[in-house]
């Protein structure tokens, strides 16, 4: 098996002799097992969903052009599992996108599934569970793609650190889910801790105690000590920062050090300098810092909550100037991240993100525009989120299988609405908050250019509108603009077509809109959804499909789609 | 669908006009959904696995000859599920036995499975989850089969009560399982509560407090108040008692009232009278009580732990003589159940269980005898249980499917050992405690008579040997005898062939043996295992198969077996 793969690669190399990078591209093989272990991410012992016993899961490090060939074995007792490779486009391998009920059947206990796909763009990515709320159980890790040999990043740095940010609940995902499914809903509340690389400090005001040299904050295990970044003075470091939080939007700041943002979601951006930066769930950034401060001191890195009144202590890490001891406490307090509801500050950061010169520009016109209204709703007394008044329900047969094999009845064939009523007041709670569930999907003409207006609205409660970071699978998109209130046709004239950033995740601000453009040129079925785990669970997502008839059905691994209506019925 | 079933029954009735009961037999239809809900079985709020929102699940009440036709929908988020109908023989419907990886594939989330089977013998049965440790999560309920119309029970009673006994942990089954799978093992410990019909009182010494009229024992919800059995004086009541505990062996006693045992596991027994009775997990009994005590008082019913040093308070119910108030406290203390390790007392009870006259007798000779040594073992440092040094591992393709379709490689084809070394000292820890795992199965000649000697042994620790209640699927068996120490050939001469009780569950006492006989005449694949949930999880079971080639493969629902190696490979 392994031999065969190597030979194929060898042939591919001969065939593409002209290409410099193709022959250096490797197949990176992994054998992973997903299972629960006991862990203490924030010093409270809980179950965490781990990979090969590790939490967070192992970091994958590859180069552009490499193929990841990963056998994933499910060693959970009774639960299915999948893993989504967040930010990887999966061109030609839509069955490897790792979305249960969309691109594949959940992998049953003791079964394996082979994820084989190419990484075709350098950047900071990550992976995570995409079934039920398994991401919130700890099923995630980093995926870093370096430029190909002989290529160079368009900025200089001496070394780098990787910071994967997450939030952590003490209630199991089963309790969280049952709460969300209850009537009335039992909201999961705020996370108990924020984690940096899987480490946090529950109920322990490090900021106060460590600084005063108090020992009231005991770490019962190494697992929850603050992360230390050991640096040398007068060097430049790249920090790769990604957020896979279940709920929390974050802000990150480093005492005394400015940060220069150079990458967002695996795309280079026009460098800009900030004191603190926002990171929404599903986003990734690279920032450069220069260690030009007083080298006799160490410095705090703080991560705090944005967009929701926080009830979670900040996560802290230490920038340790060598040769200082890593346990030497910084002279100054940890930077205080901005007030949670200072949206002007957040917008100011987000609006600065623009494409680096040389980034592909969007097509000048869209073939189709759809508007997606995000609302909080009721369904028979249950709380839901809906898009154009449709709350997403997933089918038992993955769309990729049912669309490729034209299985009738596997999902609602009625196209979902492409707009919402003209008289809907996005500044007020809905007059009629009732919604419906559906499995329907947006099917776009292959290779067409699509504009999506993400329209935020008021939630069920007066004067409440939340932040939602939307993530698109299978594509990057250009962010054309943001605005306040309801999107109006004239707003399109102000779209940035010159240097809009390419992203895979973008935020809509409270009561505002965000416009994006993408080319529907990747045959497959792709989730587009709010990356807040409980919001997706409550229906806040849509399904995009394009060119599925261009997918060679014989290439789709049967394991990926042999469930639901495709069990022994439609497959050859 | 429903129409079709009714017509079939009608035709069946016409065809079998001569049979009185057949035409009164009904198809009882049920639509069930399994999912988690919040519940407070012992006044601590936890997740419980419920059916249609109920915990315990709904009681099924049927008559002999009825067909249960039950659509089970899995509404769990990410977990599979199955339900086993404990004590139902499933003749002709081995795919409806509800054992994951043995008789069927786990039912995936949002999928349904149709359990359709006949109940052919009156008695006290129950049903429960048989995948992972889902039984311990609360997935169980009662199944009562009455004699057919026109038939009579062989004893008189005025009314009846049903008591389903269980134990309850505050740690989730996920935590319990990970603990058992850890190296070194984290033992799950003793249950926090014992439950009667899903109700218990955690950390609340009712015995002490209620009797003294203290109000220190608050019930925060109706859900955990003691069960009240409202009786009239001078009547005879049938108590149906079944135990679906995860771990605890139980003893039940009623203040001032003797009990006459009349049924065990759906088989009538020679009536005998006791002050208290043992019930092991997987067993069911009917006892008669006569309400001939002072009618101005109420009386306690107590359930306590046997066989393990208990760390769980007793469960209590109140026998309420009408017209006394149900909240009037009994004059006397709750009966104290026997000391946990008074094995002489337990044996005395068990040895009294003999078949009622008229019960079918066993064939006089066995065609084959196998001895199954029960040992606690180590496997790479993990703690396991093994039978003849094989710790049961379940395959991903259910045996019923792989055997019926002759799929190579789905399980270990090497027959498991039918005996154990002559020099094995059952009174001492094993000299070499290492074991191995296997998916192998005992395949018996169809219609042969098989004797099984269940041989207990010392556990890993000196002077420790535990009680194990063994449950056989698909059959009743005759209990031929019990003994101390290692079974010897001459013990067979003392087998009771005159009136051995028919059971589906039988206990082996510490350091002892139990002999049973059954006829392998039910085509299918059947689990035979210790009914203690964590013991089964740790490998304490075997697989019996017989006459699988007599199963009509076209009758096996594809849903039952289309997983593992049978996905789109071998099914027509």
What key phrases describe this protein's structure?
mainly beta; 9% helix; homodimer; 7 helices; disordered N terminus; 572 residues; 6-stranded mixed β-sheet
How helical, in percent, are the residues of chain A?
under 10%
Rounded mean pLDDT of chain A is 93
Tally of alpha and pi helices of chain A: 7
Main sheet properties of chain A: 6 strands, mixed
- This entry's quaternary arrangement is homodimer
Order of strands across the widest beta sheet of chain A?
10-9-12-17-14-15
Note down, in words, how this protein is organized:
The structure is a homodimer of 572-residue chains. By secondary structure, chain A is mostly beta strands. Chain A contains seven helices and 32 strands. The first copy, chain A, has helices spanning 2-15, 173-180, 206-211, 343-351, 399-404, 533-537, 558-561, and strands spanning 27-39, 46-51, 60-63, 67-74, 83-86, 112-118, 123-129, 140-146, 159-168, 193-196, 227-231, 236-243, 249-254, 259-264, 267-274, 276-279, 284-290, 299-306, 315-321, 368-379, 382-387, 390-392, 436-438, 442-444, 449-455, 468-472, 477-484, 502-503, 505-508, 512-519, 524-530, 541-546. In chain A, the strands form seven sheets. The first copy, chain A, has a six-stranded mixed sheet with strand order 10-9-12-17-14-15, with no helix packed on it. In chain A, strand 1 and strand 2 form a beta hairpin. The longest helix of chain A is centred in the first third of the chain and has 14 residues, at 2-15. Chain A binds chain B through residues 35-38, 47, 77-81, 106, 108-111, 131-134, 172-175, 177-179, 181-182, 186, 396, 558-559, 562-564, 567-568, 571, and chain B through 35-38, 47, 77-81, 105-106, 108-111, 131-134, 172-175, 177-179, 181-182, 186, 396, 558-559, 562-564, 567-568, 571.
């Amino acid at each position: 098996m392994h031999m065969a793969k190597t030979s194929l690669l060898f042939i591919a190399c001969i065939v593409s002799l002209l290409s410099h990078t193709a022959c250096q591209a490797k197949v990176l093989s992994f054998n992973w097992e997903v299972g629960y272990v006991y862990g203490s991410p924030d010093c409270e012992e809980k179950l965490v969903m781990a990979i090969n016993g590790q939490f967070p899961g192992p970091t994958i490090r590859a180069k552009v052009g490499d193929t990841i060939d990963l056998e994933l074995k499910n060693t959970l007792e009774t639960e299915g599992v999948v893993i989504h490779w967040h930010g990887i486009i999966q061109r030609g391998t839509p069955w490897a996108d790792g979305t249960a009920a969309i691109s594949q059947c959940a992998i049953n206990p003791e079964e394996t599934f082979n994820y084989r796909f190419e990484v075709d763009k350098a950047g900071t990515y990550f992976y995570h569970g995409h079934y039920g709320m398994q991401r919130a159980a700890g099923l995630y890790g980093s995926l870093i793609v370096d430029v190909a040999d002989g290529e160079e990043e368009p900025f200089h740095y001496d070394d780098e650190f990787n910071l994967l940010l997450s939030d952590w609940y003490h209630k199991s995902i089963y309790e969280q889910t049952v709460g969300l499914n209850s009537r009335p809903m039992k909201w999961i509340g705020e996370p108990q801790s924020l984690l940096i690389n899987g480490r946090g400090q529950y109920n322990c005001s490090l900021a106060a105690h460590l600084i005063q040299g108090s020992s009231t904050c005991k770490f019962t295990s190494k697992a929850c000590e603050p992360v230390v970044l050991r640096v040398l003075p007068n060097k430049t470091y790249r920090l790769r920062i990604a957020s896979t939080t279940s709920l929390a939007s974050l802000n990150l700041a480093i005492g005394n050090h400015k940060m220069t943002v150079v990458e967002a979601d695996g795309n280079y951006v026009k460098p800009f300098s900030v004191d603190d930066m926002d990171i929404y769930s599903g986003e990734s950034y690279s920032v450069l810092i220069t260690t030009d401060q007083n080298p006799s001191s160490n410095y705090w890195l703080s991560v705090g909550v944005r967009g929701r009144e926080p009830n979670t202590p900040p996560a802290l890490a230490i920038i340790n100037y060598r040769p200082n001891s890593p346990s030497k406490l910084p002279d100054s307090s940890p930077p205080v991240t901005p007030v949670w509801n200072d949206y002007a500050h957040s917008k100011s950061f987000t609006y600065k993100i623009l494409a680096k010169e040389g980034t592909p520009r969007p097509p000048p016109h869209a073939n189709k525009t759809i508007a997606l209204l995000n609302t909080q709703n009721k369904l028979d007394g249950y709380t839901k989120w809906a898009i154009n008044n449709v709350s997403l329900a997933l089918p038992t047969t993955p769309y990729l299988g049912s669309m490729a094999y034209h299985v009738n009845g596997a999902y609602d064939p009625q196209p979902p609405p492409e707009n919402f009523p003209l008289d809907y007041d996005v500044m007020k709670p809905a007059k009629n908050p009732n919604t419906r569930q559906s499995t329907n999907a947006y099917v776009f003409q292959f290779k067409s250019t699509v504009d999506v207006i993400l329209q935020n609205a008021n939630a069920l409660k007066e004067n409440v509108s939340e932040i939602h970071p939307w993530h698109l699978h299978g594509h990057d998109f250009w962010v054309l603009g943001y605005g306040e209130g309801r999107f109006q046709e004239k707003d399109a004239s102000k779209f940035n077509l010159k240097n809009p950033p390419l992203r895979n995740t973008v935020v809509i601000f409270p009561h505002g809109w965000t416009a994006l453009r993408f080319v529907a040129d990747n045959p497959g079925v792709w989730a587009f959804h709010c990356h807040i785990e409980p919001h997706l669970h409550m229906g806040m997502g849509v399904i995009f499909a394009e060119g599925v008839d261009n997918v060679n059905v014989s290439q789709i691994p049967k394991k990926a789609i042999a469930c639901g209506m495709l069990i022994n019925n439609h497959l050859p």
